């Protein structure tokens, strides 16, 4: 989006907040939660075609899920959760490696992502989607989650009594929802009145203050799960210090990489994740 268009959003929200803070908070939340729904690339669609496809309902939406069933008897299952403006195909390297290691693999496209329905996505909706999926499929042996998917996994487990895995890998997650929201306001040029109205709207809708949607604080409630946090020093979306804060709160292993950015698709990352699953 062009800078002048982004700034026009901020100007609109600032004007609205002067007249109706609640309307500004609602509008800001909707804008914040609206991803660009990118089509699944041809190579991604080809990879996803190797899975068994099904769907499940979440709040009136049809969510697409994928299963790669291992040929090995009693194979353990790993669930992969993608991030913002992404889809399950982003995991193709990891999934191939997990299958080769003898695991069955599950994944789904989050609301407003990939082949799933919807227009909005946020950590609240994503966390409820995870709970619905696991209510139907049962607890996996492990969850591997990236970025927003990682934050949603932590929140789902900590807040929603979601079925728990034995192991979980968190890759490139943000630690504080309040920081992400402040970054959004800064990008669009929204003022403090808009930001506070946005915080209030989230609290009104969810029953929790924004400060309570702290991934690092909620990670402290996951001590029964064997955890592994990976984060790149050069992550351009979430500072590496946030990954470290999550790991320290959780009391789990932390690996800092260098040169892989936010996407964390290098074969070294894949190898470390598979090694953790097999340990």
Task: Report what the structure shows.
The protein is of the alpha/beta class. It has 11 helices and 8 strands. The protein has helices at 3-19, 21-32, 42-48, 92-100, 123-137, 148-159, 177-188, 192-206, 215-219, 240-250, 267-278, and strands at residues 52-58, 61-68, 77-81, 104-108, 142-146, 167-171, 226-232, 253-257. Strands 1-2-4-3-5-6-7-8 form an 8-stranded mixed beta sheet, sandwiched between helices. The longest helix is centred in the N-terminal third of the chain and has 17 residues, at 3-19.
Low-confidence stretches: none
- Look at the helices and sheets and give the structural class: alpha/beta
Strand order, main sheet: write it out: 1-2-4-3-5-6-7-8
Q: Helix and strand string, N-terminal first?
A: HHHEEEHEHEHEHHHEHEH
Helix content: 40-55%
Number of helices: 11
**What is the distance, rounded to the nearest whole angstrom, between the alpha carbons of the first and last residues?**
44 Å
Oligomer: single chain
Rounded Rg: 19 Å
Mean pLDDT: 96
Q: In one word, what is the shape?
A: globular
DSSP strand content: 15-25%
Number of strands: 8
Biggest sheet, in brief? 8 strands, mixed
């Amino acid at each position: 989006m062009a800078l002048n268009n982004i700034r026009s959003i901020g100007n609109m929200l600032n004007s609205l907040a002067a007249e109706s803070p609640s309307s500004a908070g609602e509008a800001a939340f909707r804008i914040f939660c609206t991803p660009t729904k990118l089509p699944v690339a041809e190579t991604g669609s080809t990879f996803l075609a190797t899975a068994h496809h099904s769907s499940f309902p979440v709040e009136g939406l049809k969510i697409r899920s994928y299963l790669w069933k291992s040929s090995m008897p009693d194979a353990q299952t790993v669930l992969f959760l993608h991030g913002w403006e992404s889809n399950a195909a982003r995991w193709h390297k990891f999934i191939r490696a997990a299958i080769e290691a003898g695991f069955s693999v599950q994944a789904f496209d989050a609301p407003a992502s990939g082949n799933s329905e919807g227009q909005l996505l946020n950590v609240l909706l994503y966390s409820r989607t995870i709970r619905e999926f696991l209510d139907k499929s049962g607890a996996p042996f492990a969850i591997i989650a990236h970025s927003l998917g990682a934050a949603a996994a932590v929140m789902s487990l900590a807040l929603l009594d979601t079925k728990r895995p034995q192991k979980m890998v968190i890759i490139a997650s943000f630690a504080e929802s309040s920081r992400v929201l402040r970054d959004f306001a800064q990008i669009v040029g929204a003022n403090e009145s808009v930001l506070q109205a946005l915080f209030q709207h989230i609290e009104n809708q969810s029953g929790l203050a924004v400060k309570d949607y702290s991934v690092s604080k909620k990670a402290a409630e996951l001590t029964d799960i064997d955890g592994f946090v990976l984060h790149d020093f050069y992550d351009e979306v979430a500072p590496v210090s946030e990954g470290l804060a999550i790991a320290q709160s959780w009391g789990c292993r932390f690996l800092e990489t260098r040169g892989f950015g936010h996407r964390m698709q290098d074969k070294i990352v894949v190898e470390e994740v598979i090694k953790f699953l097999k340990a």
